[in-house]
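Task: sequence design from structure.
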C-alpha cells in the first residue's frame, strides 16, 4: 500500500510541473477561403519574439507574463495587429485570427481584444466563412451552458432535437435522415440500427467543437438528408492538462424507492458486462429431447442448467453516480510535436417507472362507431439500471509537412431491466395475465482511427487519408418472460399457450465495419482569384451476423395452479421433470430460422468538387459524387419458402450532384443557396426476413426483403447577419423531395402489435428556421452578462399514399369513420412539424460563474403508420425545461462545481393512438419526473 502511495504522489508532482512562462497559441485563417494559412508570421510588436504557423495554420509562442500587441502578417495579405493581449504565467491564451488578402494598397488593421479566448467566435467564423450551410457549437459555448457531455449542449443548435436523451436528429427528420461522424469518419453506435451514435458518451472536455452540416458537398457521404453531425475531438493540447470529475444524480420519484424492481445478475454488472452467469448453458445447436424420446435422460440436466430466477424482486433503488478522467499533453521532439489525449468516463444510472403503460388498439369494424377498442393493455412497474463506460486514447505526431493521428475509442454498455405488469387482452384472446420480465442487454463498440495529412513544400497540395475499422457487439443475455393467466372467478394462476409458456431468449449481433478514405486538395488560380479543387474516394464494408436462441418451458402431469403465480417456483429443484417421476417442468427448444441471418454492405465512392470565386463577393463550390451501394443477405423465413444464400438484394450506382453558393452583401451579412441529391438507405434489419419481438411491449418487427433506398432532392437557402459578441440572426428555408421514402407501417389488418418498414411512393418536406443570439447589454449595460438565444423550425410534410388496390389509400377509405374525409396525402412518418430551442444564459467571467435555463420541444410526430383497422400512432410533444449552474473557484480556478435540474415541468413522454372522432389511447407512456444532479471537477 505504501508503494502505491509513493507512486500516486509522484504522478501528482509530474502532472503539476510548473511552467515559467505563459503560452500564446491559436490558428491563423485565410479570409479568402475558409481555410488555414500555413507559414504566416506571428510576432510581438517592438520585440524580437516571434514564430510562424505550421502547415495547419497553428502557432505557439512561449511568452513572459504581460500585455502585448500581436502582429500577424503574410506576403500578399493585410497586416493584422491585435492589442491588449494578456498573457498570464502558467496559462494558455488562445487567439485565433483571420487575415484578408491584400487590397489595392497595403494597409494595417488594428483590433482591440479585451478577451483573447475567442473560441466561440472562431466557430462562428467557420460557420460564416463556410460555403456549406452549417451550424456550430464550440467547447467555450458548452462550458458557458454548464454542459458536461455533448447531448446536453447540442440542444441549443437550430433545427436539432434530442431523442431518448441520447440521439441527435436534425430538422425533425428522424434517425434515418441524420448521420453522425467522428472526426470526419463513420463510427457505429451502441444501437446497431441507428445512423446516429449516442451523444452522452462524449464529455465536453475532449471536444474542440461540433458541426451540424445541413447542406451536402461532394466530399460528404451521400446517405444523409437532414444533416451530418461531425464531432471533432482535440488532438494536440497546447499544454499539460488533467481533470477529474465526480458526479451524482437524484430523482425523488426514482431513487431510494423501496418498490424498485430488480433481479440478481452477475458480479460484474456494475462494469457494464456479464461475467458469464447469463451465458447460454449449452451450445445453441444442441438438440433437446422431449420426455417421450429415447434419450430423455438428458432432458433433466438441460433443464437444471438454467438459472431458476424468473421473478422480479422489490428492493431499494440507488441514485445515479459517475466519474471521469481526462488527460492531455504535448511533447516537443526537436521541430516535431507529439500530442496525447485520453479520457475515461463512467456512468451508473437507475430509472424506475411506476405505472408505465403500453397498449394496442383497433378501430371498430362498424364505420359509424368511433371510440377505439382495446386489444391489449399493460400497466406496471419497470426498474432499469444502465452502466456506460467510454474511453478514448488519441496520439498525434506532427512534423514540418505531415501529421499523423491514431485514436482508440471503446464504449461498453450494460443495461439490466426488471418489470412486473398486469395485461388485459380484450379482442384477440380475452384473458388477463401477469408478467415478469427480466432482461439484460450488453453492448460494446471498439473503433480505431488512423489518419495522415501531408502537404507540399508550398502547402498548395494536401493529401489526407483515413482508415477506421470498428467492431460492434450487441447481446441480449438470458431474457426471461414468465406469464401467468389469472382467473378472476377461481382467483388462480395458470400457464398455457394462450398467453405463451415461460420463455428464455439469447440474441447475438456482431458487426464489422471498415472505412477507408482519401482526399486530395489542390490550391490554384482561377480567373486570377484563389480557388481549390478537391477529389478523392471512399470504401466502406460492413458485415452483420445475427442469431436468436429461443427456449420455453412446458410441463407434464402437474397443475400450474399449484405454483400460486410464483415464477421462481417453476424451476425449483422439486418441480423439475425427471425420468423417474415423468412429471414436472422441462425445457423445449424453439428455433425459428427467420431469427438468424448474415448480411453485408459495400459502398464505393469517388468525388470531385471545385471551390472558386465568381466575383469578390460571390463564392461557390460545385461537386459530383458517384457511389455504388450493394447489399447481400443470407437467411430464410420460418416456413422455408424463402431461402437466400449470400444473395444480392440491393445493388445501385448513383450520381449525387451538389452546388453551394454564398453571396456576401456586407462583411457580416451572407446569402446562401444550396442544391444536392442524397439518399437514405435501409438498415440490415429492415432488408431481411427477420421477425424480432420486443419482449417488454410485445411489439413484433418484421423485416422487408424488398425494401429500396430512398432518394432525396434538397434545396436550401439562408440569410444571416453576424454581430459582435458572438451574436447572430439567421433565417433559413428548405425543401426536400423524396422518392420511395421508408416508413414503419402496421404489418396487416387487425394486428396492431406487428410493424414492418415499407416504401411509400413519394413525399415532400419544406420548412423555415429562425435563429437569434443576442447579448442583452443593448437594453442596459447591467445586463451585458446575459445572453438570449432562440431558434425555431416550422416544417410541413406531405407523403403521397400508395393507391395500389389493397394498399394504404384504399384501406383508409374502407375504414373511414362516418363524416371523415380521406385525402391521398398525409404527414411523413418520423417528421416533426416544429422544433423550438430557447435559452437564457448568464456568464460572469470575473466571478467564474456560468448559468442558464434552457427550453426544448418537438411537435407531435407520426410514429407508426396505421393501415386498415390499425390507427396511426403519434408521439406527443415533450416540453423540456432544464437549469444549469456552474462555478469555478480556488487557486487558478481549478475547482468547478456544477448543478443541474432537468425536466422542471415534470412532463411525460407519451405516444398515443389517434383516430377520427375518438379519444386518444395510450400506445406507450413513461414518466421521467424531475431529476437533479451535482458534479465536481478538479483541474491539476
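Answer:
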Amino acid at each position: 500500500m505504501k508503494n502505491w502511495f509513493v507512486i500516486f504522489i509522484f504522478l501528482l508532482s509530474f502532472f503539476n510541473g510548473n511552467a515559467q512562462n505563459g503560452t500564446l497559441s491559436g490558428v491563423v485563417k485565410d479570409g479568402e477561403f475558409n481555410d488555414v494559412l500555413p507559414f504566416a508570421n506571428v510576432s510581438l510588436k517592438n520585440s524580437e519574439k516571434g514564430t510562424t504557423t505550421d502547415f495547419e495554420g497553428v502557432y505557439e509562442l512561449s511568452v513572459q507574463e504581460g500585455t502585448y500587441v500581436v502582429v500577424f502578417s503574410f506576403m500578399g495579405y493585410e497586416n493584422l495587429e491585435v492589442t491588449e493581449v494578456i498573457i498570464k504565467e502558467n496559462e494558455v491564451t488562445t487567439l485565433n485570427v483571420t487575415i484578408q488578402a491584400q487590397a489595392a494598397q497595403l494597409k494595417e488593421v488594428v483590433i482591440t481584444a479585451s478577451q483573447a479566448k475567442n473560441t466561440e467566435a472562431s466557430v462562428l467564423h467557420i460557420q460564416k466563412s463556410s460555403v456549406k450551410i452549417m451550424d456550430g457549437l464550440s467547447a467555450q459555448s458548452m462550458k458557458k451552458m454548464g454542459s458536461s457531455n455533448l447531448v446536453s449542449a447540442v440542444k441549443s443548435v437550430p433545427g436539432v432535437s434530442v431523442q431518448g436523451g441520447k440521439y441527435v436528429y436534425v430538422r425533425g427528420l428522424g434517425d434515418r435522415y441524420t448521420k453522425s461522424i467522428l472526426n470526419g469518419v463513420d463510427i457505429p453506435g451502441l444501437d446497431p440500427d441507428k445512423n446516429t451514435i449516442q451523444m452522452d458518451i462524449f464529455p465536453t472536455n475532449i471536444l474542440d467543437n461540433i458541426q451540424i452540416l445541413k447542406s451536402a458537398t461532394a466530399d460528404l457521404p451521400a446517405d444523409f438528408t437532414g444533416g451530418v453531425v461531425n464531432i471533432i475531438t482535440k488532438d494536440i493540447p497546447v499544454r499539460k492538462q488533467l481533470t477529474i470529475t465526480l458526479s451524482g444524480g437524484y430523482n425523488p420519484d426514482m431513487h431510494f424507492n423501496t418498490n424498485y424492481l430488480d433481479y440478481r445478475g452477475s458480479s460484474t454488472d456494475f462494469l457494464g458486462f456479464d461475467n458469464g452467469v447469463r451465458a447460454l448453458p449449452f451450445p445453441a445447436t444442441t438438440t433437446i429431447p422431449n420426455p417421450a424420446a429415447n434419450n430423455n435422460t438428458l432432458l433433466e440436466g438441460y433443464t437444471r442448467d438454467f438459472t431458476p430466477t424468473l421473478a422480479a424482486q422489490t428492493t431499494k433503488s440507488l441514485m445515479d453516480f459517475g466519474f471521469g478522467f481526462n488527460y492531455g499533453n504535448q511533447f516537443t521532439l526537436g521541430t516535431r510535436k507529439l500530442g496525447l489525449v485520453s479520457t475515461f468516463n463512467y456512468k451508473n444510472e437507475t430509472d424506475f417507472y411506476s405505472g408505465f403503460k403500453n397498449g394496442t388498439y383497433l378501430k371498430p369494424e362498424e364505420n359509424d362507431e368511433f371510440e377505439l377498442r382495446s386489444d391489449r393493455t399493460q400497466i406496471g412497474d419497470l426498474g432499469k439500471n444502465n452502466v456506460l463506460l467510454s474511453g478514448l486514447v488519441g496520439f498525434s505526431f506532427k512534423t514540418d509537412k505531415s501529421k499523423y493521428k491514431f485514436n482508440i475509442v471503446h464504449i461498453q454498455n450494460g443495461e439490466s431491466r426488471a418489470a412486473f405488469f398486469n395485461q388485459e387482452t380484450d379482442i384477440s384472446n380475452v384473458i388477463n395475465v401477469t408478467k415478469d420480465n427480466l432482461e439484460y442487454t450488453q453492448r460494446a463498440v471498439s473503433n480505431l482511427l488512423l489518419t495522415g495529412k501531408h502537404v507540399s513544400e508550398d502547402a498548395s497540395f494536401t493529401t489526407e487519408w483515413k482508415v477506421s475499422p470498428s467492431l460492434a457487439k450487441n447481446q441480449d443475455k438470458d431474457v426471461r418472460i414468465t406469464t401467468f393467466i389469472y382467473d378472476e372467478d377461481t382467483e388462480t394462476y395458470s400457464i398455457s399457450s394462450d398467453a405463451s409458456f415461460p420463455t428464455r431468449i439469447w440474441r447475438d449481433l456482431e458487426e464489422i465495419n471498415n472505412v477507408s478514405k482519401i482526399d486530395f486538395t489542390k490550391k490554384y488560380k482561377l480567373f486570377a482569384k484563389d480557388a481549390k479543387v478537391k477529389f478523392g474516394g471512399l470504401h466502406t464494408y460492413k458485415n452483420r451476423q445475427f442469431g436468436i436462441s429461443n427456449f420455453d418451458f412446458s410441463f407434464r402431469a402437474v397443475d400450474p395452479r399449484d405454483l400460486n403465480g410464483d415464477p421462481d417456483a417453476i424451476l425449483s429443484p422439486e418441480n423439475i421433470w425427471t425420468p423417474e417421476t415423468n412429471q414436472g417442468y422441462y425445457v423445449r427448444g424453439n428455433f425459428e430460422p427467420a431469427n438468424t441471418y448474415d448480411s453485408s454492405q459495400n459502398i464505393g465512392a469517388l468525388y470531385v468538387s471545385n471551390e472558386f470565386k465568381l466575383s469578390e463577393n460571390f463564392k461557390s463550390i460545385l461537386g459530383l459524387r458517384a457511389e455504388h451501394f450493394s447489399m447481400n443477405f443470407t437467411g430464410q423465413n420460418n416456413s422455408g419458402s424463402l431461402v437466400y444464400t449470400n444473395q444480392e438484394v440491393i445493388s445501385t450506382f448513383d450520381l449525387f450532384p451538389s452546388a453551394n453558393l454564398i453571396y456576401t452583401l456586407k462583411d457580416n451579412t451572407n446569402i446562401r443557396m444550396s442544391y444536392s441529391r442524397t439518399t437514405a438507405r435501409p438498415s440490415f434489419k429492415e432488408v431481411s426476413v427477420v421477425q424480432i419481438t420486443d419482449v417488454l411491449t410485445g411489439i413484433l418487427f418484421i423485416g422487408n426483403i424488398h425494401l429500396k433506398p430512398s432518394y432525396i432532392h434538397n434545396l436550401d437557402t439562408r440569410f444571416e447577419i453576424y454581430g459582435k459578441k458572438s451574436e447572430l440572426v439567421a433565417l433559413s428555408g428548405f425543401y426536400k423531395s423524396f422518392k420511395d421514402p421508408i416508413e414503419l407501417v402496421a404489418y396487416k389488418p387487425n394486428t396492431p402489435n406487428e410493424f414492418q418498414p415499407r416504401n411509400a411512393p413519394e413525399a415532400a418536406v419544406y420548412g423555415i428556421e429562425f435563429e437569434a443570439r443576442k447579448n442583452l447589454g443593448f437594453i442596459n449595460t447591467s445586463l451585458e452578462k446575459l445572453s438570449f438565444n432562440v431558434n425555431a423550425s416550422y416544417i410541413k410534410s406531405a407523403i403521397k399514399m400508395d393507391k395500389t388496390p389493397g394498399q394504404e389509400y384504399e384501406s383508409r377509405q374502407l375504414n373511414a369513420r362516418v363524416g371523415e374525409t380521406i385525402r391521398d396525402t398525409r404527414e411523413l412518418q418520423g417528421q416533426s412539424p416544429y422544433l423550438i430551442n430557447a435559452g437564457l444564459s448568464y456568464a460572469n467571467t470575473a466571478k467564474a460563474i456560468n448559468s442558464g435555463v434552457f427550453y426544448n420541444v418537438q411537435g407531435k410526430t407520426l410514429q407508426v403508420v396505421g393501415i386498415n383497422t390499425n390507427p396511426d400512432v403519434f408521439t406527443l410533444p415533450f416540453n423540456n425545461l432544464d437549469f444549469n449552474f456552474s462555478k469555478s473557484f480556488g487557486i487558478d480556478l481549478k475547482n468547478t462545481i456544477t448543478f443541474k435540474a432537468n425536466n422542471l415541468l415534470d412532463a411525460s413522454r407519451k405516444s398515443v393512438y389517434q383516430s377520427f372522432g375518438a379519444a386518444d389511447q395510450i400506445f406507450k407512456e413513461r414518466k421521467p419526473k424531475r431529476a437533479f444532479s451535482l458534479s465536481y471537477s478538479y483541474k491539476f
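The two ends are 23 Å apart (CA to CA).
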